[in-house]
C-alpha cells in the first residue's frame, strides 16, 4: 500500500502513513520473532514459551485492528481473522498445560483491557459472518469443561446469539460504560434500545480512559485504532433498522456493518 492509497482508504485519521508503516513492521517483527523463540522472561522454558504465545496472540489482534484502521479490504480481513483466533488457542493450550488446568481462562474479564479485547473478538466474529468461530472464542474463557462460563451478563448475552447454550448471570464486570449496552439488550422496544446504544457509543471512549490504549494517538506510540466493535455488533444482533446517527461517530466501524448486511 502506497501513501496515496493509504490516505484514500484510512478509516481513522489519527495515524499518518509513516506511523502506520513503522507500527505494522514492528508488530509483524514481534509476531515472527516470538512464534519461533521464547521470551527471555520466566523461571522455566515452559514459562518463557507461555509469555511468547501471549505476545503473539495479542499482537496478531493488534495487527488486525491496525489493518482495519488503515483501510484493508474486509474480505481479506475476514480471511485473516481465523489466524488471530488460532493464535489465542495456541496460547490457551500452553497456558492450560503450564497451570495443569484445562479451564484456565485466557482473559481476565474483571480487567477492563481484557474485557474490551474479548468482547471485541466476539463482536468481530458476528460482523464478519464467522459465526462458526463463536464456540472457539467462548472456550478461550469458559475452559474445556466450561467452568468459567456465566461470569458476565453482557458476555453471556452476546454469546447466546451464536446458538450456544449459555448461562444465567446478573453481574456486569465492567459496568462503566457497559451498563448502557446491557440496557439496550434488555429493552423490549427497538427505539429504546437505540437510545441506549447511542448513549453507550457517545460515552464509550471517555469512559474507557482506564485502558492502556486510551489516548495513544497523542504520543504517536501504540495507536492501532479506536473501534467500538461491540456497538456495531449490537446493531446486527438487535436487528435495528437504522444506524444513521451511530455512523456519525469516529469510533463506529460502519464498514463492518455494511459488510455484514451485504455479505453474500
TrEMBL record:
It comes from the Bacteria. Residues 151-256 form the PoNi C-terminal domain. Coiled coil: none annotated. This is DUF1911 domain-containing protein. It comes from Acinetobacter wuhouensis. The lineage of its organism: Bacteria, Pseudomonadati, Pseudomonadota, Gammaproteobacteria, Moraxellales.
Amino acid at each position: 500500500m502506497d501513501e496515496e492509497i493509504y490516505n484514500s482508504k484510512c478509516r481513522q485519521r489519527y495515524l499518518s502513513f509513516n506511523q502506520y508503516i513503522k507500527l505494522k513492521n514492528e508488530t509483524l517483527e514481534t509476531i515472527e520473532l516470538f512464534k519461533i523463540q521464547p521470551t527471555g522472561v520466566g523461571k522455566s522454558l515452559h514459562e518463557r514459551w507461555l509469555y511468547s504465545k501471549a505476545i503473539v496472540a495479542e499482537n496478531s489482534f493488534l495487527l488486525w485492528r491496525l489493518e482495519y484502521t488503515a483501510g484493508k479490504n474486509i474480505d481479506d480481513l475476514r480471511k485473516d481473522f481465523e489466524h488471530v483466533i488460532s493464535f489465542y488457542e495456541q496460547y490457551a493450550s500452553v497456558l492450560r498445560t503450564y497451570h495443569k488446568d484445562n479451564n484456565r481462562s485466557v482473559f481476565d474479564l474483571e480487567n477492563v483491557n481484557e474485557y474490551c479485547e474479548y468482547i471485541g473478538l466476539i463482536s468481530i466474529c458476528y460482523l464478519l459472518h464467522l459465526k462458526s468461530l463463536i464456540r472457539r472464542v467462548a472456550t478461550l474463557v469458559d475452559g474445556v469443561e466450561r467452568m468459567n462460563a456465566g461470569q458476565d451478563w453482557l458476555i453471556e448475552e452476546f454469546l447466546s446469539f451464536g446458538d450456544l447454550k449459555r448461562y444465567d448471570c446478573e453481574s456486569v464486570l465492567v459496568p462503566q460504560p457497559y451498563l448502557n449496552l446491557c440496557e439496550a439488550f434488555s429493552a423490549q422496544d427497538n427505539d429504546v434500545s437505540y437510545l441506549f446504544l447511542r448513549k453507550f457509543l457517545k460515552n464509550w471512549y471517555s469512559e474507557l480512559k482506564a485502558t492502556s490504549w486510551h489516548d495513544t494517538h497523542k504520543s504517536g506510540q501504540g495507536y492501532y485504532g479506536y473501534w467500538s466493535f461491540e456497538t456495531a455488533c449490537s446493531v446486527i444482533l438487535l436487528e435495528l433498522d437504522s444506524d444513521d446517527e451511530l455512523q456519525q461517530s469516529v469510533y463506529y466501524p460502519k464498514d463492518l456493518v455494511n459488510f455484514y448486511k451485504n455479505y453474500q
